[in-house]
Design a protein that fits this description.
The chain has 394 residues and is α/β, with parallel strands linked by helices. The protein has 2 domains: 214 residues, Glycogen Phosphorylase B (Rossmann fold, 3-Layer(aba) Sandwich), CATH 3.40.50.2000; 158 residues, Glycogen Phosphorylase B (Rossmann fold). 42% of the residues lie in helices and 14% in strands. It is built from 14 helices and 13 strands. A 7-stranded parallel β-sheet has the order 3-2-1-4-5-6-7, with helices on both faces. Strand 11, helix 9 and strand 12 form a beta-alpha-beta unit. The two termini are 27 Å apart.
Length: 394
């Protein structure tokens, strides 16, 4: 498994990876996690004693990465990419003749935008993503609708696999005296759009003086965030709570969860809130969020706007009504009963084992593609070679 920020992050992706690695190790697979880190940092989440972890300075150092992969000699590589590290890792995997499975955790349009860079190549981000991903021996996607973003001849190598969510022993108490709105990871990057959460809470704070807002996770541009909270006069009401190793414990103390992301794929925080019987308010236009939240059943979906009218209305509705929050929270908890971590781990095992069959003959994939659609296969193969050549000459 190759993961870019495994030792620097404590978010959903890192947590999921640790859970999957530990589960597959328990099924007697040998797992090594390689993360990009120049130090000897350790992961935020615990790994089984049978799961090995090593750091390399950079995934863009193909010589060093190739040496590390040769030493490990894996049957298959699982790679969660960020941006152009996808190019360097796929080139290295091909050189080592090791099949590769791509873990795509983001929304396709956002990934395509991140791969657009005229300084490197004239190929569009959309075409680049399609060309590279069709060279993978397996792809994990988070939502069924994302499959249409992959060329049809490669669909049989794609799997939609959920995140592993675990049901809490009981839903959170909605009738406790101290009331908290909770946001998790909302300020760690611009795409999480956590300032919308702060601005919306500010618009209801005076009306609901018994409520506070806790924001967990790292804070990007912390000075600016603190300054804005101070300007709103909410220093005593908004708590930047840092990184927590016990999000379930924090959710049990909360009454309502909010997520105001611009883009998501399958946000852990919504599933985790459901597992704790906490209703979520989110934006209706955000994929992943709208896949989990059923409006007025297990949470509320708001219309995104500059004046925050819709999300403020949702906040007022749920902050003012303990009984409604309880009802929606109970529905969320019941919906979460359908989550099956065991199935998630089995789906991952099947995807990786299927890809491992290409070990030593990873080019067989192109021949199988040609039997489905020879012309399009050849077009994408040529584009992929052009991308690799441009990368070497950059």
């Amino acid at each position: 498994m190759l993961v870019r920020d495994f030792t620097h992050g404590a978010g959903g992706a890192e947590h999921n990876l640790a859970l999957i690695a530990n589960a597959l190790s328990a099924r007697e697979h040998t797992i090594t996690i390689v993360s990009q880190d120049e130090s000897n940092a350790v992961p935020a989440y615990s790994l089984s004693s049978n799961v090995k972890h090593v750091n390399v300075p950079s995934f863009y150092d193909e010589t060093r990465l190739s040496t590390e992969l040769s030493n490990i000699n894996p049957d298959v590589i699982l790679f969660s990419y960020f941006r152009f590290d996808l190019v360097s890792v796929m080139k290295t995997a091909r050189k080592c003749n090791i099949p590769i499975v791509i873990w795509e955790s983001g929304e396709p349009n956002r990934k395509e935008a991140m791969l657009s860079d005229a300084r490197f190549t004239k190929i569009s981000g959309s075409v680049m993503r399609k060309a590279l991903l069709t060279g993978a021996h397996g792809i994990r996607l988070t939502l069924p609708e994302f499959i249409s973003s992959i060329p049809a001849f490669h669909h049989r190598w794609c799997e939609v696999i959920d995140n592993p969510f675990f049901l809490a022993s009981a839903p959170a108490n909605q009738f406790k005296k101290e009331k908290w709105l909770i946001s998790i990871g909302g300020l760690k990057s611009p795409v999480k759009n956590g300032m919308d959460t702060i601005e919306a809470f500010a618009l209801v704070a005076e009306e609901f003086s018994d409520w506070g807002l806790k924001i967990f996770g790292p804070v990007k541009e912390k000075e600016r965030v603190i300054s804005r909270i101070a300007a709103l006069g909410l220093q005593s009401r908004i708590k930047l709570a840092g990184v927590s190793r016990d999000i379930y414990g924090e959710l049990q103390k909360a009454n309502l969860h909010i997520i105001t992301s611009l883009s998501e794929a399958n946000p852990n925080v919504v599933g985790e809130a459901m597992c704790n019987g906490i209703p979520t308010i989110g934006y209706a236009d955000c994929a992943g969020v709208n896949a989990r939240i059923q409006h007025n059943k297990n949470g509320m979906l708001a219309t995104r706007s500059k004046d925050h009218d819709s999300i403020v209305t949702a906040l007022r509705t749920l902050m003012s009504d303990d009984t409604l929050r309880f009802k929606l929270g109970q529905n969320a908890y019941e919906d979460a009963r359908s989550f099956s971590p065991a199935k998630v781990f089995s789906d991952w095992e099947a995807l990786l084992c299927n890809a491992a069959r290409y070990k030593g003959n990873s080019k067989r994939l192109v021949e199988e593609h040609k039997s489905i659609d020879a012309e399009i296969t050849e077009n994408f193969r040529k584009i992929r070679e052009s991308i690799f050549l441009d990368w070497e000459q950059r």
